[in-house]
Design goal:
mainly alpha; Arc Repressor Mutant, subunit A; 3 strands
């Protein structure tokens, strides 16, 4: 009688099993990192603020495209961010119907603090791993970077 195989051992090369494990792990990690931000913002607000910081100034329409949400949704998110002093909105000089949004100094400071908290938390968790697991994770990051690279 053959010894039973462990499910994780049997799935080391099974693409569907790897995909399922990666999805679950990535979701859990993202949730835990989101909890570390402690900014009092919704995930949508953090995402929009990050996009504005990376690609701004942006029109509200372009921000909606970047965030893959409807324009009315992005308008509400930006209104809350503006109310909190995290972004600044200005009307276009040539077309007063178009609004441009950019990150404010307070928004940039908040994003930097959020990123720092997340990095400190993650570094502490990584320090709990032994050196072999940290090396394995480092190797896996190369594969993740390749996986998420733009396929141009």
């Amino acid at each position: 009688m053959a010894a039973p195989t462990r499910p994780e051992a049997a799935s080391k090369t099974d693409t569907a099993a790897i995909a399922a494990r990666l999805r679950v792990s990535a979701t859990r990690l993202a949730r835990q990192l989101r909890q570390q931000s402690d900014a009092g913002l919704s995930p949508s607000q953090v995402s929009a603020l990050t996009t504005i910081a990376m690609h701004g100034p942006l029109t509200l329409g372009r921000l909606a495209e970047q965030e893959r949400v409807a324009p009315p949704s992005v308008t509400k998110v930006v209104a809350k961010l503006e109310e909190a002093g995290l972004v600044e909105r200005r009307l276009d000089d040539r077309d007063r119907r178009v609004a441009w949004v950019s990150i404010s100094p307070a928004g940039a400071t908040l994003l930097a603090k959020m990123r720092q908290r997340k990095t400190v938390w993650l570094a502490a968790r990584l320090a709990e791993l032994d050196e072999t697991d940290r090396l394995r994770l480092g190797d896996a990051l190369d594969a993740l970077d390749a996986l998420t690279a733009d396929p141009k």
